[in-house]
Amino acid sequence: MIRTLIAGVAGGVVMFVWTTIAHIFLPLGHTGISQIPNEAPVIAAMQSAMGDKPGLYFFPWVDPTDPNAPKDYMEKAKTSPSGFIIYHPPMTNAGGGLPIEPLAEFFKELIQTLIAAVLLSLTVLASYLSRVAFVTAIGVSAGIATNVSNLIWYRFPLDYTLSFVTIEIVGAFVAGLAIAAIIRTHASR
User: Fold this and answer.
1) Domain count, the chain
2) Quick check: is 43 in a domain?
């Protein structure tokens, strides 16, 4: 069990390094995201409408509990733009302390790689490459699960979707390289 824990932590570290590189130094983390044209009046309108209430906003809005919601949405979408806005009011503590996002991302990836390490330890995969492929397959599943659903249901941009699926798959692959090097399954011992 200690070996599995060490493998999961090692996988989490290399996955975090990869995702940091992908989001900060490569264009992958920004693909499909654009600046709002004429941003200032849009921001002013959002601040006026939403104030201090952060959230994920969908438009045009229809009541999802209304049986006519699909029809109502289609009617509204014919004459109105549609989309998502993730809104955060101005940060009152901007610049103070460490950003929570990198720490939260690391813990999310650590949980992913610990799960992958536990699952791999339960297999009988003998070769190093088959163990790497196993962990990578978990990443393929994770990468398409949310990202492709957002493409299908909410029309996220294809380039954004492919970029973020790629980040997940490569992250699982590099984590798999570390995890598979540490975990020796029953058949590989």
Assistant:
1) 1
2) no
